[in-house]
């Protein structure tokens, strides 16, 4: 069905000139090699051409008589000019070329996976109805690791999953029918994802056994599926596994028998999965076990595993989401925002070269708006990657529309100045600033399998698509990516492209308008994280104290002089930019400063008036989203149309609730009336 096919609709090409052109060019295929990835590429190409053009491409046994040739560079260099070969040689392992030469299309690359990416490049161009004559594309990914983290549990639930149950597990078992996993692998490879971890970072009792004989034979099957799409498999582990699995008395990373236990364990895993990627570890975080129990640090913990992985080329992806979740607001140095930097920065240079630190994009936790994590780039001698959240935990849970590409773009473009101007997050995680051995980008996935459409809200598919495209090429704009996605998903219709493009691009700002203001974050219902609850976390022992609203003002003082000192974790000039209230950008003001309600923003409004205005506006913007979507009724199939229409209706209720609660709360705290006298109670 259309909702199941996401952006790989391969709809029949309607434009007749274009269709004739393709039909003429794409008749016969020669495939070099038979590695699983090459077979996937061939399958995708032949199936897609059949649905788009209504013609079956025929296989040729020699290159000369084929109109398309695909294969690894080693196999088909005879068809390429010296110049082509030289250009390919300059690119990384996943670099590919797609060229047209005298009526023949050649897709080649530096690896089998690269060929698959090249095939998807061609298919994307065709769906966008581009000309194929004199194509000369040379592409390589900017980031080495392009990863997704599934937060799926064996019982079939998905932590922070808003799209139904897991496609990997059901009722305590790995699913027998793995068709859906295979299709997921297809979608991921079409946007260049090359690594996946398939279980929740919170590893509870039974998932600890994933690294044992009980589950490894079936996990191997999953690894085989992903391998055929160029995707390497990783597992999240329980740091206390030696105790949980084998009843040992300790998991101390410096204990010899613990080290031996892991060595044997990792050897066993490679026996099943020879190209196993490695582990993701959430340790000493939110009640998960870790090295702190034994008075060891995180380098001790990570290095123990890294050593055991060395003979196999495996990696340890160590998460930096480490903070004391039971904070004491009387001690400002326990500011949660400071935690990752305070824990990890002193350990720079102590990690083995096959350890990669995975750092959330912000210092807190995937809020609608946060500063960029100052830890990223601050450890020149330690591999790092950034972590995004495609799942919309704090951004509307795939009920509310929130296209996250503009947010991710902004984060990647952020200049840390750590090594002078131009030290952007994009360059740091691409490994071009500190020359990391391994680096890249990971994100929490947003898919599930209850509903055929994968993401609950059909429009949330844009975030998954966009995530892959952006991390392959961070220079693509949020708009370009939206347009690519729209055309492939809903067909090439101007009105849909225009209207939906506008809806997507404004949606993050709209969401921000009616939720927590000016970077303060966290005014959500505790636990579920959807809907407003302004003081829900404010006085709770879990996390604690995020907005400090009182009768005089609002915001968290994180300055050097009077606050938590978090601002000092940034390099200059960012440190000063955030520390100085007169310079701090409006959108983050309350993240860094506690200010009176009548404080005037750079946009010339007072804080309190800004809160009222954005909240009234945000609600109206949601009403406008509904109108816009309704105007597309005749251009979109009923099923997907209704799905989104229904979500937008729920979004409107949510926006109303946020608007009213936020406005009322701040009116009552401040006693300052709205200048426009709108209804606030
Ligand atoms: C938070 C989620 C929680 C995750 C945690 C994490 O609320 O469910 O376990 O992040 O990243 O955002 O480990």
From TrEMBL:
EC number of this enzyme: 3.2.1.131
Gene Ontology CC terms: extracellular region
InterPro entries documented for this protein: A-glucoronidase_C_sf, GH, Glyco_hydro_67_aGlcAse, Glyco_hydro_67_aGlcAse_N, Glyco_hydro_67_C, Glyco_hydro_67_cat, Hex-like_dom2
Biological processes, Gene Ontology terms: xylan catabolic process
Keyword presence, Signal: no
Domain Glycosyl hydrolase family 67 C-terminal: 455-678
Enzyme class, first EC level, given as a word: hydrolase
Domain Glycosyl hydrolase family 67 catalytic: 126-454
Family membership: Belongs to the glycosyl hydrolase 67 family.
Protein name per Swiss-Prot or TrEMBL: Xylan alpha-1,2-glucuronidase
Source organism (scientific name): Gracilibacillus boraciitolerans JCM 21714
